[in-house]
Automatic annotation (TrEMBL):
One of its GO terms (molecular function) is methyltransferase activity. This is RNA methyltransferase. CDD domains: SpoU-like_rRNA-MTase. Residues 137-281 form the tRNA/rRNA methyltransferase SpoU type domain. It holds the Pfam family SpoU_methylase. Transmembrane segments: none annotated. Keywords: Methyltransferase, Transferase. It comes from Limosilactobacillus alvi.
Length: 298
């Protein structure tokens, strides 16, 4: 049985995360403990539940509630995931739904859920969890667009990237738009935050200490193509991606072991960072180590 609560208005305090709190307020809602985030669509919610995130509540449209709950229950049963139990499930009609869409939500794809964040490991503990054989990780430095962050995670999940480090001046992977664009793969790829100041001061030194070579995606006189043999032969590789426009910090490029580029037509010097990540991960990720991965899915 589900704990269904049918609403006639959106005024209750328990609805504040859906109606009145922005992403930053959700992030800090339970300080000093990890905060909250919004997961949108049954697929994203299901992947969050499968990864062990706890829901505080769900909000669904009345006319699609049965379908969405059936989809969630089915997926959780398949993956032997803990059910929703007595989690409050708020049900709204189309009129109330329009108030939410006016605030920036789009429920055309189903449900919303308020989820509890989890504590992220520090860099040392995070790197200790990476595979011992041929690990490939990505670092997102000042990637401020949530859509790009989500797309990068989706490519990382598909193309054999073992983990992602996100600097604190990047968009949060758990922002609603990022997790939606990622199709929930932000709950599939291991990742952690790193304070941007610490990253600039000692991040690459820490990676070197763990045996990683670093490859900055940038254009320099000594830039090599992403299919250069030395990159494939490197046992531990960290691929560093920067913001749209400004790109990577000069200090990051200077300290990196390689600067790498994607060969392209004359008079075009760059791609969108999300598109660039997909090509780099295709070439440098670990998909080749997994012959069981089929090539017939898109």
């Amino acid at each position: 049985m589900h704990n269904l609560i049918f609403l006639e208005n959106l005024e209750g305090k328990d609805l504040a995360p859906y109606v009145r709190l922005n992403e930053a307020q959700l992030f800090h809602a339970l300080a000093p403990h990890p905060g909250l985030f919004i997961a949108e669509s049954p697929k994203v919610i299901e992947r969050a539940l499968r990864a062990g995130y706890r829901p505080a509540s769900l909000l669904m449209e009345a006319k699609t509630m049965e379908r969405d709950l059936a989809d969630l229950d089915h997926e959780m049963a398949i993956n032997q995931t803990t059910g929703l139990g007595q989690t409050p499930i708020y049900v709204v009609d189309s009129k109330l739904l329009r108030q939410l869409t006016g605030a920036g939500y789009n429920l055309l794809r189903g449900a919303l859920a308020v989820m509890y964040r989890v504590q992220r490991p520090d860099l040392t503990n995070f790197l200790a969890t990476m595979p011992s054989d041929h690990p490939r990780i990505a670092i997102l430095e000042r990637v401020v667009n949530p859509t790009n962050v989500g797309a990068i995670f989706r490519s990382a999940a598909a193309l054999g990237i073992d983990g992602i480090i996100v600097t604190s001046d990047s968009a949060d992977p758990l922002y609603r738009r990022a997790s939606r664009v990622a199709m929930g793969t932000v709950f599939q790829v291991p990742w952690t935050y790193m304070d941007a100041k610490i990253w600039q001061r000692e991040g690459i030194d820490l990676l070197h200490r763990f045996g990683y070579k670093t490859a900055a995606m940038a254009l320099r006189h000594n830039t090599i193509d992403i299919d250069h043999p030395v990159l494939g032969e490197t046992e531990k590789l960290a691929i560093i991606l920067g913001s749209e426009g400004p790109g990577l910090n000069e200090a990051t490029i200077d300290q990196s072991d390689f600067t790498i580029k994607i060969p392209m037509a004359p008079e075009v010097d760059s791609l969108n960072v999300a598109a660039a990540s997909a090509l780099a991960f295709w070439e440098l990720g670990n998909r080749r180590l997994h012959p069981e991965w089929s090539g017939d899915k898109h």
